[in-house]
Amino acid sequence: MSESTPRTAPPAGASRADLVADAALALLAERGMRGLTHRAVDEAAGLPQGSTSNLARTRQALLELAVRRLADREARVLGLDEMPDPRQGLDSLVDSLALATHRALTRNRELTLARYELALEATRRPELRAHFDAAGARFREQLGALVTAMGSADPARHVLSLVAWADGLMFNCVAGTFHAQVPGLHEVRAGLREVLDGMLGG
After folding, report:
1. pLDDT tens per residue, range 142-162
2. Residue 94 contacts by C-beta under 8 Å, 6 or more apart in sequence?
3. Cα–Cα distance between 15 and 178 in angstroms, integer?
4. What is the phi/psi pair of residue 14, to 5°?
């Protein structure tokens, strides 16, 4: 692994599976799908050769391991356990979603890049598609419950619009034409407020 590859110190007690999955995600962000091999993961994780193969014998198994780990790490980035009570009002929801989006754009940029690599691969691998979609279901369901409780007249459509807005912003600022113009938290919040005002009549 090159010196440019992002390496995060594993948390105390991290399992070997987590080490392997984290190394796989870092490789996806740095080298893309072609750079993801069992040998490269062993090197990136600082593990003996063959360790990754022992955990995930096939490429499909390695990709599934990466998708599961991605879901766990993104749940922390998105703060799923920190989402506000709908009774706290629209401002609280906007603040929470803006902070989550800004985290993905800044200090978790590499994780966001890895997600796009896996999303594209899932379009070519039906067997990976189900795992990838299931990994994102928790956030969509929680967001749906929030907008429903706040008076959405069409929760399914509003969740789609919110996710599409956030994904569009993240893609363009991480990998697209605005990659050198990452917005600040205040700008992200302003954009989200405009979107949610239109949906919920705030």
Report:
1. 889 989 998 999 999 999 999
2. 189, 192, 193, 196
3. 37
4. -60, 140
